[in-house]
Amino acid sequence: MSHIQISTFTKINNSQSVFFLANKKSNWDGAGFDKRELAYIDKKIKADEKFITVNQFNRLVFIQLTEAFDKKSHWQQLEELRNTGNKIASAINAHKYDAIQLSSFVNTKNGELLAIAEGCALSNYQFLRYKSNKKEKNTLTNILLSHTYVKQEEANELQIITDAVYKARNLVNEPQSYLNAVTFAQEMKDLGKKSGFKAEVLNKKQIEALKMGGLLAVNMGSQTPPTFTIMEWKPKKARNKKPIVLVGKGVVYDTGGLSLKPTANSMDYMKCDMAGGATVAASMYAIAKANLNCHVIGLVPATDNRPGENAYAPGDVIKMYDGQTVEMLNSDAEGRMILADALSYAKKYKPELVLDFATLTGAAAAAIGPYGIVCMGTADEKQKDKLKDSGNKVYERLVEFPFFDEYAKLIKSDIADMKNIGGPIAGAITAGKFLEKFTDYAWMHFDIAGPSWNTAADSYRGKNGTGVGVRLLFDFIKNLAK
Question: Judging by DSSP bridges, how do beta strands 418-419 and 325-327 pair with one another?
Fold first, then answer.
């Protein structure tokens, strides 16, 4: 699998490619340019080009002019710099070089070089496990940051974040022929061993003993048993007295069940329906690996959703873990069924805040596309603001949907406490209203159906699984742990 090493340097190595953040007034002394190259750079600057590449035949030299970002907010500038990192990684790999040094001719105190390194590192990800031709592997293996502008601890943290996003992407990209519910649970246990969090996996008998009706109902069509994974990171002197609980949807493959997905190509990428679970697992890895001083618990119910065996049928009434009853009218609305049991289970921890991540609805993806994360919930405004700030910082922007009480009327059932779909309008919100019925604490729901999977490459987010949510959660928990 992909790997890249991120570290710092004190002196530029003239045999390796290098990047400079600069402005039009920068003095190029010490950059190693000859007269012809300086004339070329001057010509490009006069032509108002902001990203300049100089090919010195044994290496590439990149220049990014900061004037390109002057009128943008700081978090927008950081995103532009991540995109610059994407350009750098593409060029380095195209020329078969193995390293890039990142330095600056301007004062950078607000994470600019780190943003470039982040974009470069995340762009370098590949999923080659099932490829016979390993020659396709990227050559870039080292990103070096100037010690003048970046501390080694900052580079170490970026290494952890990058590794965590890679791990989330790996899980999402794995086909269900490998990653079934049982294997997914084992992968999460392995992440715990590598980073230091505790992990317990409940098997089918234990899930039956707990009477998790939603998870068991979805699993009835499968030959593979369900799992319920409980992860915990608890430092001895955690800042929070009550834990933050993360809940992730773990549907490892979704056919729609008996409500079989009807549209062309609608099943092709359904191995990604556990992206919420991957986000939670990889975030737990990063939080523990970075030794963040915050008590965090992760819950991931996992199963596939199939129309076989004794699959539950539209019209069935399911008794959930907390005793509430659900009239199931569409088996393709399965994610909320397994999340509901996990959200009910979370009550036992008396949490400070619960955050769930799920590829839950096509309605969320249709509403805002891949450009942000739909969210809603009952957290207070201060908690929401902190989450939105983290979302902006890492450019996983949050779009809060209305959560009016009236939407709950749309999931009223004639024969049970509720039904699992709400009709043709506000599908993302009625899904959220369904989940709300299983909470009694501050809670936010994140529908990542849009940004969790890219059908075409998108800058440093790449193609296929994106690992969305990991960087957001890490930044949010890191701020809480301070």
Answer: parallel
Residues β-bridged to residue 245:
297, 354
- Domain ranges in the chain? 5-150, 162-481
CATH classification for the domain delimited by 5-150, as one of 3.40.220.10, 3.10.20.340, 1.20.1280.260, 3.40.1130.10: 3.40.220.10
- pLDDT at residue 2 tops 80: no
CA–CA dist 361, 380 (Å, integer) = 24
Q: In the annotation, is 336 catalytic? A: yes
- C-alpha 476/C-alpha 373 separation (Å) is 15
pLDDT in tens, 206-218: 999 999 999 999 9
CATH topology of domain 162-481: Aminopeptidase (3.40.630)
Query: Which candidate in 82, 306, 336, 437 is catalytic?
Result: 336
| Catalytic-labelled residue, pool 261, 347, 388, 463 | 261
CA distance 407 to 395: 29
Instruction: Specify whether 461 is catalytic.
Output: no
pTM of the model: 0.97
Residue from 480, 479, 474, 268 nearest 357 by CA:
474
Whether pLDDT at 474 is above 90: yes
Distance CA 220, CA 101 (A): 54
Under DSSP, the state recorded for 230 is: E
Separation CA 194–CA 180 (nearest Å): 21
